[in-house]
Please model this.
Amino acid sequence: MRLKGDYAVPGINWHKLLSLESGIKVIVLIVIVYPMLYNLAGYFIAWQFDSVRLFYTDSAEIKPFGAMLIENFRSGLYFFQIPRGLIWVLLALPVYYSIEGSYIRKGVIIGLLFATLMNAQHLLPNPYFPAEVSFAHFIETYISNFIWGFSISWLLNWHPIKSIST
Model:
């Protein structure tokens, strides 16, 4: 379907989406990028709040990032994030392919969508988290989910530079 002139209606390019290159990008996103972003944001944002450390460990001690990452591997938390990353990538794909414009515009929209929708629960009082812990998680997840949404857009747009031999 075409509108005026050569202007194509936006939609999913299934050939491009199901390509090997696209598949590798999605695997990198869900196996490496999302779990690492989850751990980095958790440690360098939320874990900096005394109330968060006390809530989860009953201690105010800050262990090194590497020790926390190893513990997250041992406990399975790192691997638990892989299916979550897959779910968010699958949710981002229709949004990415339905938005016209640059990958920056798409990334900002997906980032704001993820950051806002995934954080609404932190704005309301709940019986599971004290207010200080909920606030720390709000800051942590708002920032990391925005970066996550933007990362999806950037990586889906990224094309490796092909060397030209002369």
